[in-house]
Amino acid sequence: MPSIVAIPHTAADAERTPVAADRLVAGTPTQAVANAYSDPGEAFHCGVWEGDVGAWRVHYTEHEFCHMLAGRVRIRGDDGSETVVAAGESFVIPAGFRGIWDVLEPARKLYAVYEPAG
Q1: What is the distance between the alpha carbons of residues 17 and 25, in angstroms, rounded to a whole number?
Q2: How far is it, in rounded angstroms, from Cα 72 to Cα 13?
Q3: pLDDT in tens, 62-112
Q4: Which CATH number fits domain 17-114: 1.10.8.470, 3.40.50.300, 3.40.50.720, 2.60.120.10?
Q5: Considering 3, 13, 28, 115, which has the largest number of Cβ atoms within 10 A of its Cβ?
Q6: What digits encode the pLDDT tens for the residues 20-73?
Q7: Please, which residues have CB within 8 angstroms of residue 24's CB and are 6 or more apart in sequence?
Q8: CB atoms within 10 A of CB 105
Q9: Strands annotated E in the chain
Q10: How many CB atoms lie within 10 A of CB 47?
Q11: pTM for this structure?
Q12: pLDDT on residue 116
C-alpha cells in the first residue's frame, strides 16, 4: 500500500541555481526546487519552489497548480494578459502558456505539476 507523502513548506535544503541566461529578462535570480513526490510514470510531481527577485521567460508544457506561501509574483502572458499573485493565493498555469515569470518579492510556492503524455 502506498504511503502518505508530506510536502515541505520550504526548500531550505535544496540547491539554489541561477535562472538560465537564455531565459533571463531582468535581475540575477536564483531558484530552488524541493520535489517531494513523483508518480511512478513521471507524469505528476509536487513539492515546493523558492525564487529570488527577477524575471525570466517561461513556456509551460505541463499543467501546474500553485499555492503561494510567501512573496508576490507577476505572470505576464505573451497574449498581453497579466496576473499578480501573493502569499495565500492559488492559481493554475495551463500547458501551452508562454510569457514572463516576474518575482516582485522573494517568493515560495507549493506546486503540483501534471505533464500530459505526448
Answers
A1: 16
A2: 22
A3: 999 999 999 999 999 999 999 999 999 999 999 999 999 999 999 999 999
A4: 2.60.120.10
A5: 115
A6: 999 999 999 999 999 999 999 999 999 999 999 999 999 999 999 999 999 999
A7: 54, 55, 56
A8: 12
A9: 17-18, 24-26, 30-38, 44-51, 54-59, 63-77, 82-86, 90-93, 98-114
A10: 20
A11: 0.93
A12: 83
CA distance 74 to 86: 9
Cα of first residue to Cα of last residue in the chain, in angstroms, is 29
Q: Are 64 and 116 in contact (CB under 8 A)?
A: no
**49, three cell numbers:** 519552489
